[in-house]
Amino acid sequence: MREKKIEDDTFVVIPAYNEATNISEVLFETLKYAKNVVVVDDGSIDNTSKVVSKYNVYLLKHIVNLGKGASMKTGCEFAISKGAKKIILMDSDGQHDPKDIFVFSRALLRYDVCLGYRLREGQMPLIYRFGNQFLDGFSRFILGKKIIDTQCGYRSFRAEAYKKIEWNSSDYTVETEMLSNITKNKLRYTQVKIKTIYKDNYKGTGVFDGFKIVFNMLRFKFYGIFGIVFK
């Protein structure tokens, strides 16, 4: 079966940190659907960059580890400088199925943003399932919007919407800040169900990350109202 390729002005941005084991398969599959792929090696201490350099993709490097949010920003701004009209964000650990790329690209014909959401049964580790459910419910209360999966990193948006959803978070809080900016700026968004693969070394949002995300949800909510700044 012939894969559906996305347009040349759509860029896939993949932040990566110590993913030498998984990134090869991710890129091999992603290049079946996308011509323009940007990988940001966020200060990896393994062979991530060496593996990536074997593929026909853009490779950007941070000298030190700055965090997922910082890597996403580096990749998105580079893609826009290269003429990207649409940007798709994917994880580098093999958790996101590249076959869904076409769905995320097509959704932007009608919407500014497309958010992926994962099923909460099957392979998802129990602790992450409960943690994500709590964060989803809390974000619904804070943001006033029903976001099915607030922590899913598989997303897409139009390049022209980037400035409205641009984030300052450098870590895993980035997904939440994006949602806050999407709702604050009244961008049109849709949500699509995705297939997600959970491996033995699955990297999810930990307990400490969860507390930070809740803390920052409150910060994103009340900063604009009361001018409160939390450090």
Shape verdict: globular
The average pLDDT score comes to 82
CATH domain class name: Alpha Beta
* CATH homologous superfamily heading: Spore Coat Polysaccharide Biosynthesis Protein SpsA, Chain A
Return the string of H and E elements: EHEHEHEHEHEHHEH
CATH fold name, please? Spore Coat Polysaccharide Biosynthesis Protein SpsA, Chain A
**Number of self-contained structural domains:** 1
Radius of gyration: 17 Å
**How many helix segments?**
8
Instruction: Please give the largest β-sheet.
Output: 7 strands, mixed
What percentage of the residues does DSSP assign to strands (E)?
15-25%
Q: Cα distance, first to last residue?
A: 52 Å
Q: Secondary structure elements and their pairing?
A:
Blueprint: E1 10-16, H1 23-30, E2 36-42, H2 48-52, E3 58-62, H3 68-81, E4 86-89, H4 101-107, E5 113-117, H5 126-143, E6 155-158, H6 162-165, H7 174-184, E7 189-193, H8 207-226
Parallel strand pairs: 1-2, 1-4, 2-3, 5-7
Antiparallel strand pairs: 4-6, 5-6
Helix pairs in contact: 5-8
Structural features, described:
It is a single chain. The chain is an alpha/beta fold and 231 residues long. It has a single domain, classed as Spore Coat Polysaccharide Biosynthesis Protein SpsA, Chain A, CATH 3.90.550. The protein is built from 8 helices and 7 strands; from the N terminus they run βαβαβαβαβαβααβα. Strands 3-2-1-4-6-5-7 form a 7-stranded mixed β-sheet, with helices on both faces. It is globular, with a radius of gyration of 17 Å.
